[in-house]
User: Fold these one by one.
Assistant:
Number 1:
Amino acid sequence: MKKVLLPIFSLLLAASAANAQVKISKQLVNIGQTAPELIVNKQLTIGGASKVAKKAVKANELAENQKKVAMDGSELPFTAIGLPGYNPTDMGQLIPASYYEAYAGSKIVGLRFLTMNSTNMTPAIYVASGSSLNLVAQGKEITTKASPLKSDNSAFEQNWNEVTFDKPYTIESGSDALVVGFAYTQSSKKSGSNYDMECYPFLVGQNTDQNALVLANVDTGKGAQWQGVSDQYCMCVQLILEREGGFPDDFSMLGAYTNSMVKPSDKLPVEFYVKNLGSKEAEGEFTVSIDDQELGAFKANDLIGTTSSKVGVDVDLSSLNLAAGPHTVGVKVKSVNGEAPAGNLKDDASYAQFRVYTNSTDRQYNLIEHFTSWTCVFCPYGYETLRELQKQRNDVAWAAIHADMDPNNPDPHTLADASLITQYSISAFPSFNLNRFNLGGSMIGAGMPSTDPAKNAEQFSKILDLEKEMVPAQLTLGMKSNFELAEKPNLQDSKLTVTVTGKGVKDAAKVLNNAVLNLYITEDGLTGKQYGKNGNSWYSKYNHDNTLIAIATDNAYGDEIAWDGDNFEKTYEITIPKKTVSYTTGKTLNAIAFVSLPFAFEQDGKLYANADLENVWVNQCFFMDINKGETTGIKVINGTDSNATVVARFAADGTQISAPVKGVNILKMSDGTTRKVMVK
């Protein structure tokens, strides 16, 4: 299997920037809250704006030896942003070096950008060197042309502002990221309780690059400094490059995607993205291969332009006799306008992984990793969303993973071992991993669609059903536990032993090659503070059920599975700290076991993040209540038997009782499941 690796250190840098974004734009100035008519209610879509964008940036508007370079998404304005309530001196866009490093020796002679309102701005370009920004080019102050929302709310007008630099900046080989900054005056004018539209001068598109950030030079109490304010959007900015002799045609492949799992007789759909580093559109021909065996060539239906183009092809697998397990599909540039590719050949191919299977079983539970923080104003909606989801279906294994949204006000339920999955998954709170599928973003975590918990739950439920079809389960999980509760659990640690078993279908071990076993311990009955939904008060005693308190595996990112044929078994011993469990007050434990592809690897003594976000998914998951003494988890695959009857009843302290008693009662059902009920 070809691994796509990124150093964990790079991942941590991206995550720290995301945390800055959370602090400013989510906690202090939430764009979706202050300008809902632009983001939520109007439902501005990329499709609605794309036609305008293509019309506005024709190549013939530039000189023959010039071209524009823009981030993906930056040419399709989606909404408008600002920092009302603060006094930023500048706002800017960090553009990763990957967008322009192929043009070393070229000059940045100017730029184009969009503003929603007409205002005075002074543009500049900085080189990001370490933690500092070095000014390398500056334009004159201009009064911008406005690009307001159209009357039918279908899209923004696009009246591009163009600035030429007196002293162009020459791109150096091995350059760092650039920041395009704009000095301006931020308005904080209000009409009633809402900020006026003039408070949102910058038009932005939807960001597709986790390394790109919107920045602001603003004082939030620690002195004025540049800091990240959003990684969800990218400013509508285009660099204008100039090179003596112009820019020759040179295709750059930007990634390939396919189905995660297929049967050996299926047709494999492959999509990939490519753009022309030259100045014009060009005809492209590509080859396709499976496991480095070339199968044939095909031409793209449309010309390849200077912004990302999506190309698709179907590969018939029926004659290839592919074995069960992981395989790689590759697409490569064969010709450009009928000529052999030239220029940089290192980016002329893209690859994607898929897995061949023949047999499958039903999914037992769906893993929901819920990222929350007690200082997050919208996080109560996240809890309500998942409570609604549990009402709609009985196959949800919910782990609430707390993190510090505000470093100055740390969440008491934050678990250090969970920091890796938190940083890998999210850029804001609340967020949700749904079986760790990448739902189209630069992180695998999905945001909350709305503040309507019931609608959110319906949407999540549809996604879970789709994921079951995309990645058919290859094994059935089971768990047994023995919980030795200390005689004085408030003064002494307790001991928990959990054995996880996996019974696979034929070839499960091959299909799930490199998969890892994960074990979460969660706690119900925790209560504590939580910032309220009204944004200006605290809940003094909020219910924090399903809180992740321990990752029981040897590695926080999962343990290698020791297969015995297509089966496995592994036992874990976990120390439960004192003051954790109290059966009399309803503070009880749960276990969640799941098999997934790893999001991190150890290689040569170093820890790396898996950069292939399409292949970190969960294949199977199991949930079990942990009772005092021995517990065996059993779940009817097709759902809980609605006709199941109570065969045994236990009090909260684990003692068997013959009739209901006040407080938490634990019911053992005839279908093998256990249920917790509150008797009042």
Number 2:
Amino acid sequence: MVAFSSPTATTLALATVVRLQQARRRGRMEENSSITRSNNNNNDNNGDDRKTNAMKKFVNSERRGRTSSSISSSTTETSTAQTDDRKEATRRLLQSQDSMIELPLIERNQTNRVMGCASQTWVKIISKPSSSKSAEEERNRVIEIKSYSDSAITRGFLGLLTKKFEGYTLKQIIEDVHVESIVNETLRGVSESSLKTSKIDSRQNGFKNALETIKRQARSLLNDFQNDPFPSLIVTKSGCEPKGSFAEAQAKYLTPDDAQVEMLAKLLIEKKCGIVAHFYMDPEVQGVLMRCKAKHPECASRIFISDSLVMADAAVRMVRDEKCENVCVLGVDFMSENVRAIIDDAGFPEANVYRMSPDAIGCSLAEAAQTETYEKYLREAGKAKNSLHVIYINTGLDTKASANAKVPTISCTSSNVVNTVLQAAAQIPDIKIFYGPDTYMGGNLVELLTRASTTWSDEEIKELHPEHNQKSVKRVLENMEYFRDGACVVHHLFGGEVCRVVRDCYSDAYQAAHFEVPGEMFTLAMEARERNMGVVGSTQNILDFILAKIRVGIEKERISREFFSAKNNCTDYSKQSEEMNEPYVPERMKFVLGTETGMVTSIVRAVSEELEKNDSSVECEIIFPVSVDSITQVKNNSTYSGKIVSNAMSNLSIIPGPASGEGCGMDGGCASCPYMKMNSLAALRETLEMIGSGNDKKNTFGLELREPKKYKGNNVAKEGCVSILHMRNFQRDKKLGDDLIQDILSR
């Protein structure tokens, strides 16, 4: 079984059909390379193809399914026929480039760049402005497509697009162009019998991405909206550049105060303390933590930033290997409880675990599972024969303990929920699965399985899970329920309006979303994932995906530079003139971040280090999908949150964002968790200073108020860990444990 929850996995299992396609592709790479060269008598094109072949070799090495050949022909005659057909298809493609209207060198820029293409490719649509003010006449303006690629084959595809859209209007491009059908129709014009081959070729994704760029440009021309309406951070090897006030607020603490860093390092050693923090921490806190790790090697193993489950594992290592007597948890309360319980289970009950506030650090999702509605949901689940409750890890120990008492329960993460459900159904075919409490994850899980059971082939489904097919996946859907009344306040913000803007303005960018986002954002990321441009998964999955794409961009840059240098006997990569054949144009890779904005700190640092290490000019733009530019101007005598604002506060800029609105939290700014922001740098310093001070009880914020309960005996903590241990067994053995299976069958 494919272990998508393993640390090496860079994307979630929900789109692994792509892996199957990639495995097929590898078996044809070298053959296609020779075909291309043999059918091209133009010296320039031959050079382009050599470059394309080099690029393909690398791009393939980055992909999954690394088999030397996953498809073999049944007979020699069939293989020869297929080869001849591909030769003819290649010949037609090379001829089609004559139809392409070449985009001038000066316009081969970031705005017109096609992302996700193995070659350097640009497209730009042009339409003559209408003299009429009529909206309908504006929509019926005829367009012209100009384009260019440094690959001869890709220029052939662009020529096909040029012919296909000849005489098209802006309205037709926006409303009538459906990417999948256009791709199939266009490829059919190359070679009917080679359509299957073309569909699994890497260039198909580039073809689709070019179409998305054309549609995005058409919407921009028609609506005249700002091309980049969302704030963003542009990351380079030398640092980052914020665009928009919210991005400025995020970037402010990426270079922390050295005095704060030195304070933290001193206290960690002095207090024999470790820190585990969630990705959603405030940028100020993360900036100091990450700078401390980099500057003080003695503290590097005492600081860990990750997803919620991994925080507990890191805490155990700190106590066991680093001899930390105290662990500070920067997260919400259920994370502190999990850390406490896992440390106890590991045999270190003497270690102290602290959270950062005497007040509850809540979580809207965890609290949704503490309601009578959820209790009723579990009671109904317990009545079903062979039932299994799959509970999201982001819930409290009390919830997990209570749930397991009613129905056999296994915890899951956003990385392994798909495999957990499918494996359970594989081991017990008539099992009834009840998922909760995250409503959006449940709905997205159903959406994924519905897609698999209706549009995927059995072969593609087996790549997702080897023991399933369309029929069995349909049975899983028939026997699965999910809770309909639980959501994270942050993920809830990525709704319809935000997604409309993403689709209008960023449809050709990379899409990175949590599995827990609303269906609209999930669908966007899924559609992008199907053309190798998106990921849906955990925060770690998102980080891994971004880094993987950046590394592809770096390698593309290296290959292009080497080719350019050899062809022109020149190493001035920045020189761009008609005399210099195919200079390298630095790539800016755009990523729409569909999750809590706090994780940008980890992204920026990881990407910067990768670019600096490779001396790369590639740029990475992290886009925050929020409703406005995330700055509120308070006017004279205006009303703010129901209160009259005095003249003294006029024209005050309030950062990070609007008081409300889609994409913006009421208490924590845009796409920001207000509970996580209770873990401030001041709270961390205060807690560290109080440890072992002897003045605990004299302090209003005494440690006894901050220390999670230490559980002894077979109690809530012990019972709450049962579902987590079931998940750990599943992660290790790739199947449900015998004790859990017995529990399911016996109740």
Number 3:
Amino acid sequence: MKMEADVVIVGTGVGGLFSALSLPRDQKIIMITKSDLESSDSFLAQGGICMLHDKDDYDSYFEDTMKAGHYENRKESVDLMIRSSREIIHDLIGYGVDFQKQETDESGNEAADNGGEKAEIQDIYAFTREGAHSRPRILFHADITGKEITSKLLAQVKQLSNVTLLEYTTMTDIIVENDECKGILAQDKDGNEFEIHAENTIWASGGIGGRYKHSTNFPHLTGDALTISEKHGIRLEHLDYVQIHPTTLYSKKPGRRFLISESVRGEGAVLLNSKKERFVNELLPRDVVAEAIFKQMEKDQTDYVYEDLRPIGKEEIASHFPHIVEHCKEKGYDVFKEPIPVVPAQHYFMGGIKVDYDSHTSMKHLYAIGETACNGVHGKNRLASNSLLESLVFAKRAAKRIEKSLKERAHYMFDQTTLKLNVDPLIISALKEDITSEDVSTNSVMPFSKTGVVDLICKEDGIICGLQIFERTFELLDEACDVEFFASDGDHVEKGQLLGRVKGDVRILLSGERVALNYLQRMSGIATYTANVQEYLKDSSIRLLDTRKTTPNNRIFEKYAVRVGGGHNHRYNLSDGVLLKDNHIGAAGGVKEAIMLAKEYAPFVRKIEIEVENMEMVKEAVEAGADIIMLDNMDDDMLKEAIAYIDYRAEIEVSGNVTKENIARLTNLGVDYVSSGALTHSAPILDLSLKNLHVI
């Protein structure tokens, strides 16, 4: 049997579900799971999900994550996760996830109503703290946060007509053609093998707990994607980075261990030895606490230690951890009266299939997300409650990467032909302008070649645009330059964000710096300004257009930037189309004459557009049969009169001194296009810099 899809997703945990929800609705998606839909580790997550509490929390959140990971984390991945956290939480709330709300805010005032437009998440929801966190920043739903999130996402996916869900289906291999992944081989519960062909494949197949005797994971999670990766030479990373959770309920029976959430200790529970004495700081990172427990068990010659929940308080235990209370009761333990026996168990896998910042593996069209992937967020040890967030952030990035690859739009990337013929000469000319004979400053301090690295840093909020041109500038100076980006054209970026890193000959980095930044800052500024203007038109059908009021020899870059910002291009140059302006009309002898002459000369496939300034010209343009009438520099009363007169007999464009400050007045007039020269001639740059250059 053979099935066809645009995207096949292996796994139905939060990563797989969120990627399906984030992909375009015109994509045919097949999702498979090895067991039933609810048997994923995402359902088992108890504690919660992290979120950047506020801007002041960034540094401490970053440091907490790095410290827990023994500073072996990829800093760029950590940065992406933290900066994306609030957006992800907003997404989850939009999908119906019900996080615990607070009764009062941090100042003791009555908490903001959820429906308040200006209410911030931190003003509405309660936050808890877990081990190795320097402050509360974890949202939760009782002690079943994973189930709450995953079940709500699953319910949303089940409503999608473009998604097919297959239970009890196991991936056995991938389909490889020309070193590219083209889908998977699978097997149903009856052992029947079949193929799922797809343009893109996403592995969201979970961890490796099924390979361990004692684990908090479902037993069917056996790292199948890792085995397949080894077979096909797909890059793996840190396979020995396995996290042991310090506290699972002790049992003599083999099989999956019941997790006693990290947040239990975060709220005040303590760990006790056989003499019921504390022996460790319970809020240390998991690996440190687990090691302390193992040492204590060896010292006491016991199979477990004790965890005492009673310091939390009876009311808080009952409200925050009801499912833990109930499970312990079923096993014969009353957490309100006695400590419970706990033991470390395999819990989480920090290594896996190496991926980039968009979750792409070393094989084309193959992505990996969640616990099966290694994007470097966790380093050597995972910070509590980062796993759900990390899965969601990089699931969405994978989906957006696929979406971008599907869009064959000029505004996404210059093709190689355009690059070589039309772009390269302009960049080279700019470099020649900056270096007429030699770079005296650089040659003074760096007479010989040394390899260095420099960071591309954003210095204000905006939309990034021109990364390809930035990279190309260094490539033209030295093909050996290696540029790595942590953002894509069109992304919203924030002050302080690390956008990329350039590695190469230090002399090249210094000599190309200014030209590369000039292009990137200018293009990003135009994209940002365009997006700001477009925001005023978001609820209308008006198309925002640029003009030819561009910087000489920079039109190809500036018009590209307009498209990245959400606008559209008017004519690229005088060969593109017929636009009869005031001087054309004067030369022809009038509006009617200009239109008739254009119709006689121009190919019949070309639309005739004419610029008019008063009602007399409007009437002549309509009578002569103009296709598009540009109403130039008219006041509001004349605009309304002209639009009423045209009455859909021609398309209408409004132009003349249109800026973000006054464009909103045009939204309800019934025009088709608004053109604004300000998009290119008045946009300020987006401040960016290359910093931290050092020799390696």
Number 4:
Amino acid sequence: MDIEKKDLGKAIATVATPEVYDAEQAYERLTYVKHNGRVYLSKKDVPIGSSPTGGDNDEYWLDYELSASSCRLGRAYTCNINYPNRPTGGSYSSPSPVEDEWKAEPYDCDYTLWYSERLFTEDGHNQDTEWSMPAQLTHNQYIETRYSNLENNPGNPDDNPDNWVETTTDFVWIAIRSITNGIKNHWNVSRVIGKAGNTGPQGAPGKDGVDGKSASIKSITATVNDTIGTPFVTATIGGTEFERTFNFAFENLKGNKGDKGDTGDKGDKGDKGDTGNVGPQGAPGKDGKNGTNGKDGKNFTILGYKDSLEQLQADVPNPNQGDAYGVGTDKAYEVYVYDTVKGWANNGYIGNASSKVNTDKVLVVNTIPVAGGPLSDLLNKAGITEINKDDNLQTVLMNLFTKEIYPANLVFTEGTIKSTVPAPIMTINKSGLIEVGTVVTVSAITITAGNKTTTDRKYSGFTYGYSLANDNTKDSSNTSINVSATNIQNSADTYKLSRTINGSVVNATANANPASVTIPTVTFEAIEETNTVKADVIGIRHSCTFALMPTYYACSNLGKTNINHKSETKNAVTLTSSIPTNTISHTVTGVYPYFTNAKNNNTIEKEALTANHNMKAIKFAAEGPNKHTFKIPAKYTVTSIEVLNTLSGKYEAYPISNFTVSEETIQVQGKNVAYKKYTRNDSGFNGATTFNIIF
């Protein structure tokens, strides 16, 4: 260790406060340590026993050569939405900026917290010439909410403040927006409680189901015998558990023998018999009574054909007694005959009637228990324990083979509108590494008009289509309903354009017409390190309207509707986009040139520009009348020199004291810059020599 405890104690007494006087922990707790006329700045926590000089110097400490007795580091903080201006002013006795916006301590704020620092010395020698460029210290973001209990859309809180409150437990609408570094984003207004619908009847509790196996029906057959008796049906299951077959055997559908019919018509006249003998003439008979006139008969006439009974009733509102129409959509039409008392009566099929069985007319005579038969277990698992009396065949088959399914979830997605603005158009005439003080030209800046995009308002999840009313009628097979944006308009915003050079705003303008938003050409002198030219544009917002979406009823797989399976009504809404932004930036790096006589012993020449604070592998020619020489800006201090051992191929430490240091002034980009000139003062290297010079 280069510094003993007693020396370290003296250093602490000079730069530290009494409460941190602890020789064992000083390196961990102090920011600055003074030793032998130099001040060392800690870059991070330093392990106990690691001195500010020696091998660990580069890793843990920054070395300041100071003639002053002490130094102070000024720290300043400010809160700002945009990039703040660099602070100014301050002194050793008062190490704070002159600007009121910069504070000596960090503090909480709603925007971005920025940080800057500057080193001051007691006599002003070798202190920082200006405050560091502001650096972002925090990122602040939080959510703001408002609540409303209005039934209809209350609008956004900014435009309709009377409709909203900050806190409540009873609300219908909620408005949410985020605030990032003090910038308030667009309100997102949503309804959280739907309008109350009519209460439906409570259904009977369902039975617990059991796990089943997936199966398909391979075939279904039916037979009808000609026996007489009480009608019944026998169902037979067959096939495998994955491919089932079903047969329905209908028995006793033939009726009992009917009553004796009326006397038949007189038969045909028989053959004429042989002529008999002529008998004697009888007495004259009495005249008979005249018979009653019979009624004129009418032929059966089909007046027309209709697809359904409903259509017949609509198309023929005032029928006459005996009017007859065929009803149906195929050739096996049902005949409906109008009776003034009974109305339209179905008289069965005409045409190819044998090809069609009216399942609605085949009724179960007696209640059929589902127990003990080959299908009973399967039907019981499905909740079918009996087939009721007077159920028709259509109902029986539907209960056996069909389960009504409704969509599980209807999803609403609100429409959106988004505004964008293209990045500004800007160029600079330099790139890469340039000398400090080089004049850089920044082109004029222009922008182009922004644009907008929308997405539809949408209800999805109607797996089996939907209906506009709860009427068991499917109106559409579409699985979703979309509403496009209308009334798309520009806001009253203006386009805003600004330009910053190395963090300072140098130009800004605004106009509603993007063609009028321009910034002229400008120049600046490059400073050391990174130079950044940035242009930011703020575009205009857009608004649009999405029309009302009424209630839609989701259809089941059977095409039915139910009050419990419907969408919520979505009122018409007007949306406004967030403020669009964009940016473009260019950078160049300013560096000081270094000089050597490495190439020609008699001439000091400029080395290639580099951003590194070292000269690696500088190969000097054999010494002649002039010694090996290099020049670096006076602000830098050489920390080590290495020389290449040509025998081992390795670099070895070389005393800095073997170079004599002098000062001179060199013009860099037309300005006088103080340089240090290092000239070798020893001998012993007759041939070419390669150095690594670190500063």
